[in-house]
Design a protein that fits this description.
The chain is an alpha/beta fold and 468 residues long. It has three domains: 15-100, NAD(P)-binding Rossmann-like Domain (Rossmann fold), CATH 3.40.50.720; 112-314, UDP-N-acetylmuramoyl-L-alanine:D-glutamate ligase (3-Layer(aba) Sandwich), CATH 3.40.1190; 323-466, Protein-Tyrosine Phosphatase, Chain A. It has 14 helices and 21 strands. The protein has helices spanning 23-35, 48-54, 87-95, 102-110, 124-137, 200-212, 227-236, 287-302, 307-314, 343-356, 372-386, 411-419, 433-440, 458-466; strands spanning 15-18, 40-43, 59-62, 75-78, 99-101, 114-119, 143-145, 157-158, 164-168, 183-186, 219-223, 243-248, 255-263, 266-273, 276-282, 323-330, 333-338, 363-367, 391-394, 424-426, 446-450. Strands 8-7-9-6-10-11-12-13-14-15 form a ten-stranded mixed beta sheet, sandwiched between helices. Strands 16-17-21-18-19-20 form a six-stranded mixed beta sheet, with helices on both faces. The radius of gyration is 22 Å and the shape is globular. The termini are far apart.
């Protein structure tokens, strides 16, 4: 396919991505490369994702330098994490190269397709992944863009010829307002992303705008259980709104969950749909993952996929990297990686692991708070969630795109955890954590590395220390 193919949006035939190794950016770059665009970009460090992009013919520079921006670049693609002083961004502006936000690039890729956009404070990546895996298993050849890898670096996105495009819709910076989906999924609405939203009311208004972008004749799939989602439904239901399909355990839900039967690291879920019961397997543990699967089921049905076929295909989903991903076992101790960084997510993952663990197993957590703004607002709730573990180690705050905030440290989390009766230790030197965890863990225990930052890197080191 040539770079002039109509499936490549204008101005994106020779794009340059700043931060190309990121989950969202790499997915868009991958789809463009698969469509035949000449793609280049840069990232702060090399990675498996960068290697996967290079295998597709993408040019990936390490480090940020104005010289990396090729003279023939048709546009520079950025995310909200890219700062104005980035030398490649500055060079683009000096040269008059168009600057395109990641969300606008993704919206352009979805043009001409039947988009399903999955939104919510948490659960987006899992639900999007479940739907992408199931539709692919049914031979429907969807395109998809996910905020995490399914099974290998670079598996977060794919260009398919089937016409359906499944995308994770990020509310953190309001970028999901760029999409006009045929089906919008809203899993939950909670206060988060405090650097961009001053109140829950602002978040509600942002989700209302997202729902307002649904195409005429489209569908909103929304939780019937989560209070924020229920409030959103009451705000948007009415004249001119999309068709609303509610999902959950509430008696009035259109797709009602009647039973969730945990079976170790899987669950058996029964739903009442159009007066008939449908039972299927969810191959990951936890009640919240069962709810995600039912939302995926409802979204697939909304684009015409038969319910029974889709339910059977959903059983083939076995997880996504960093979402309760088993990293390995050593000395009888299992090490599991969790991306949870919001208190609700933390509690849900800990409850899921507790339910799947043996009666005598202890659950040990290595937690890394993510963002100073989130820690300032939700640090106490994070500490409360850690009380669900038998013992925890809390690392320093992972800053990501933020500058330090005076007085905001991981001690907020540690203090709240101790006040809730948790056994918690502060760890300011991440290099010492594998040794500390190895000293705590006994055969039969489960260790969770938890957080959205680089705490994930500690899993293999903990396993190696346990095995030594």
């Amino acid at each position: 396919m040539s770079p002039t193919s109509p499936s490549i949006p204008p101005a994106l035939d020779r794009p340059h991505f700043i931060g190309i190794g990121g989950a969202g950016m790499s997915g868009i770059a991958k789809i463009l490369a698969q469509r035949g665009a000449v793609v280049a970009g840069s990232d702060a460090r090399d990675s498996e994702t960068a290697a996967a992009l290079r295998a597709l013919g993408v040019t990936v520079h390490i480090g940020h330098d104005a010289a990396h921006l090729a003279p023939e670049a048709s546009a520079v693609v950025v995310s909200s994490a890219i700062r104005a002083e980035n030398p490649e961004l500055a060079a683009a502006r000096d040269r008059g190269v168009p600057v395109v936000h990641r969300s606008d690039a993704l919206a352009a890729l979805m043009a001409g397709s039947r988009p399903i956009a999955v939104a919510g404070t948490h659960g987006k990546t899992t639900t999007t992944s479940m739907l992408a895996v199931a539709l692919t298993a049914l031979g429907l050849e969807p395109s998809y863009a996910i905020g995490g890898d399914l099974d290998a670096p670079g598996s977060n996105a794919h260009h398919g010829d089937g016409g359906i495009f499944v995308a994770e819709a990020d509310e953190s910076d309001r970028s999901f307002h760029a999409y006009s989906p045929e089906v919008a999924v809203v899993l939950n609405v909670e206060l988060d992303h405090h650097a961009n939203y001053a109140s829950l009311e602002e978040i509600h208004r942002s989700f209302e705008t997202f729902v307002g972008k649904v195409r005429p004749g489209g569908t909103l799939v929304v939780s019937a259980d989560q209070p924020g989602a229920v409030e959103l439904t009451s705000r948007v239901r009415g004249t001119g709104s999309p068709r609303v399909v509610t999902v959950g355990e509430a008696e009035h839900a259109d797709v009602r969950i009647t039973r969730i039967n945990p079976r170790g690291l899987t669950s058996e879920v029964t739903v009442l749909l159009d007066g008939r019961l449908l039972t299927f397997t969810v191959s990951v543990p936890g009640r919240h993952y069962a709810h995600n699967a039912v939302a995926a089921l409802a979204a697939g049905i909304a684009v015409g996929v038969p319910a029974r076929n889709l339910a059977a295909a959903l059983a083939g989903y076995t997880g996504v990297r960093r979402r309760l991903q088993l990293k390995g076992e050593a000395a009888g101790v299992q090490v599991i990686d969790s991306y949870a960084h919001h208190p609700t997510e933390m509690a849900a993952d800990l409850e899921a692991i507790r339910g799947a663990a043996g009666p005598h197993a202890r659950v040990l957590v290595v937690f890394q708070p993510h963002l100073f703004s989130r820690t300032r607002e939700l640090g106490a709730e994070m500490g409360g969630a850690l009380a669900l573990a038998d013992a925890s180690v809390v690392l320093d705050v992972y800053p990501a795109r933020e500058d330090p905030v005076p007085g905001v440290t991981s001690e907020i989390v540690v203090g709240a955890a101790r006040a809730a009766g948790a056994d918690v230790t502060a760890a300011h030197d991440a290099a010492a954590v594998p040794e500390a965890v190895a000293g705590m863990a006994k055969a039969g225990d489960l260790v969770l590395t938890m957080g959205a930052g680089d705490v994930t890197d500690l899993g293999p080191l903990i396993l190696a220390r346990l095995d030594s």
